[in-house]
Amino acid sequence: MRNKAMGLLLGLLFCTPLLQAQQKCTIRMSGVVKSAQGEPLLDVIVRTEGNRTAKTDATGRFVFNKLCAGSYPLSLSRLGFSSESYTIILSRDTALLLTMDPDAIHIQDVEIIGQQQGGLSSSVHRLSAQQIQENKGQTLAESLSDISGVSTIGMGNSIVKPVINGLHSNRILIMNNGVRQEGQQWGVEHAPEIDPFIADRLEVIKGAQGVRYGADALGGVVLVTPAGINMDKALSGNFDLLGRSNGRGGMMQGSLEGIVKSIPQLGWRVQASAKKIGDYETPDYVVGNTGVEELNYSGALTYKWNKNALEAFYSHFGTTLGIFRGAHIGTVADIEARIAHGRPFEEYDFSYTIEAPRQRVSHELAKLKWTHTFNADRSLDVQYGFQRNHRREYDVRRVESDDLPMADMVLSAQTLDVVLKQKNSSFGVQSLIQINNNTPGTGTTPIIPNFDSYNLGLFAIHQFHIGRLHAEAGGRYDFKYLDVAGYRYRRDAVNEDGSIEQYLLTDTRRFHNASGTVGVLYHMTPRLSWKSNIGLAWRAPSANELYSDGLHHGSATYELGDQNLRSEKGLKWINTLIWNTDRLTVTADLYAQLLYDYIYAQPNPDSVRQTIRGTFPLFVSQQHDALFYGADLKLTYQLTHKLQYEATASLIRAKNIMLNTYLPYIPSDRFQQGISYAWLGEDQPHSYVKLVHRFVARQSRYEANSDYAAPPPAYHLIDFVASKQFDLASGRQFNMLFSVDNVCNTAYKDYMDRLRYFTHQMGRNFNLKLSYQF
């Protein structure tokens, strides 16, 4: 009997593995991890049996495939939250909804260390879901201006770009879905070619971010991040319909996403948006030829298997923008008279027609990214990006057709990034190739020459965590090679027919530099935290700053470069204090930045350039050491359960410390405050009314007689917003938002607007925005 029992036991021991091997382990366990407030949590480490791990994505989702039936332990861990443990019994495919409670001491680390977007010591600011909803239909720069310390520069109301602590254009990097945006961003009137509708998160990282993101990140970084594809539904999506009174136009947007049922690891998304707006109106007159037409679309695929994830993304951005014709002027006397008059002499009728002068820009971006997760603490990202930016600028021609562009530039860019992420460290290699070609046949000399640019960067970042103190340090080295060829004017040689002689310019330049960052995050108390970061960044002078010598048709200015310019080097120290209680949240940024060999375009009021196209203001590239310093403040106070007060303020000071003079085109002091009333409960956060007051001071820190016109007066604006959320069956939502910009129909000009010489900003504007999500 004992022998039979022993035989049965041995049989079970040997047969059980064989039975398990024959069992089909095809069960899929997926889940979503959220905070106690219902926000999805990124980078939660999920562990189960056999030390198998997964990490949640931006939507809080994780997945384990090829599991057998049975009982599984499940643990969740994330910095800033208390660890959680569960036991899950699996018999079929299972979807879980899990929550984590915050850790009081490390609550500030949740967005900083957990996401590691800008480093734990950087000042990172994100637009809320409510702000993104309110700003739908606006340009990227206009949306970001709700963040303290961020303003805009541009031409009128349709061509604007972001300014961070006084720096813009080539000193700010924009990361579009993880890819460094490469277009003709050197021009003030070259707005970012990005459709904000694709973004689920819009963030600004202040400070010199040259180590992680590369050369040119002197002023900061803008992160435009789409939401992760929802792989828990076979089909979901959202639609937006927007209308506005000023410009008598509208926008529409639609997005669909889901999974392939036969391949549940494969997710997909398609999205498209369109815009058509006519001439904008000031309180007193129509600004002719300022309409906008836009058509954008994108698609994305995600495939996950074992410890690998593959992402593919493609987007197309296409726009046509009108340039106010009154900025293209015939004589010196005319330009002086128009600036003195302060508004157009002509009367314009409203129109949707976009005539010359105008811009037509298309931007294509393709991305392929592979991520391999070795374990919960180590992963490898390999990403390739390709971009093609085609910019055409049209002017009024005397002989040829206005349909022939005056400038026709194609910029192709390829990036390859390889980043190894450890538990507390990152190591990376980043490369960039740019090829800029001017299309022949325009009948004009291009403002910038053809060029090839080759860039290579190596970086390493490490973080240290000791109780309440967190620190980080990083270093980077970049090399850039620039090869230039193009025709230029020889101003001391005039042909017999009176035309200016041209010559072939060829040049090669090599730039290289090191970047570094050191920072700390210290939790003084559970409610008060201090962040401090010192960053060294640099950028090489752009092709227009080096070689431009001609009419820039898009901005109606004549620009003159300097071939002897050196690289800019910037050292920025930014300190952030964060006070957080149940009712009050205060964030204060104090910063100072020393910029060696700062390059800027100085308007020259003593000289204009007369060409066959007319007479234009002259802007000349100059280079001096400069000092920027200032403060940004954001405050939110919950007056009652439903009543909330918000305020932001920013001030900046900037001087040429070599000449002891003020720098041109620096934002003036500004203050914004708003009070909102939630007229329904917390389960409907988008049901509220809000009144906003904006104040922008006159820029008094400028050099007299250094510009064509003195800075305009200060102005106050009042805005109104009313929003209502409707919860429908099956988790669907419908949102209706009505807003009024510039309620009092105030006539004003902004110092950062290049068209302020000739016209005012937009008057009162009514908006209606309808959104449906399922």
From TrEMBL:
Signal peptide (UniProt feature, chain positions): 1-21
Gene3D superfamilies: Carboxypeptidase-like, regulatory domain (2.60.40.1120), TonB-dependent receptor, beta-barrel domain (2.40.170.20), TonB-dependent receptor, plug domain (2.170.130.10)
PROSITE patterns for this protein: TONB_DEPENDENT_REC_3
Annotated localization: Cell outer membrane
Residues in TonB-dependent receptor plug domain copies: 121-221
Organism superkingdom: Bacteria
Bilayer topology: Multi-pass membrane protein
Keywords annotated in UniProt: Cell outer membrane, Membrane, Receptor, Signal, TonB box, Transmembrane, Transmembrane beta strand, Transport
Pfam families in the cross-refs: CarboxypepD_reg, Plug, TonB_dep_Rec_b-barrel
Domain TonB-dependent receptor-like beta-barrel: start-end pairs: 353-743
The organism of origin for this protein: Sphingobacterium griseoflavum
Similarity comment text for this entry: Belongs to the TonB-dependent receptor family.
Name the record gives this protein: Membrane protein
InterPro entries assigned to the protein according to its UniProt record, in alphabetical order: Beta-barrel_TonB, Beta-barrel_TonB_sf, CarboxyPept-like_regulatory, Plug_dom, Plug_dom_sf, TonB-dep_rcpt-like
